[in-house]
Write a structure and sequence with these properties.
Number of strands: 10
CATH class: Alpha Beta
Distance between the termini: 17 Å
Structural class: alpha/beta
Strand order of the largest sheet: 5-4-3-6-1-7-10-9
Number of helices: 5
CATH superfamily: Dihydrofolate Reductase, subunit A
CATH architecture: 3-Layer(aba) Sandwich
Radius of gyration: 16 Å
Largest sheet: 8 strands, mixed
Amino acid sequence: MARLIYSAIASLDGYVEDEKGEFGWAAPDEEVHAAVNDLERPIGTYLYGRRMYETMASWETAGLGADDPAVAREFAELWRAAEKVVYSRTLGTVATARTRIERDFDPAAVRRMKEESPHDLTIGGAELAGRALAAGLVDEVQLFLHPVSVGGGKPALPRGVRLRLELLAERPFHGGVFHLRYAVRP
């Protein structure tokens, strides 16, 4: 059975965006981006909320230029090759290939995706991931913690959901970013 992985870039105080909805501080350097690419290779499907999809949709055309960094070109290829499912009640159409809209997040349907997929899935967007964590669907949490404190905003992990996590791996990067990989335990 495929794993469902929640991966997020967060501030050291645990936010994916600040109180103004900004996340420019989270831009990965080349070393971190290469590590993200390594983690994305086995992914066959991305599950997104509308806002995360709209952020990521730029990869449909990004990374195509010869002057783009190699890590960006590689990520773009990985992203375009994967299936995308966008959970939204308001999005009318999608702007990317290999993408479909689901109007409601159905935990049973996600369980079936995990059972039927030959490749792992990721879930992006803190709110959608929070719903999947609360439903017991997430197998692994991966956090890239940046050496910045933003003081508030959208939390990377859901409030009111208790999780038992087992550290599987940790990796520091030269720029001060730290990658933490956890298994979610029942």
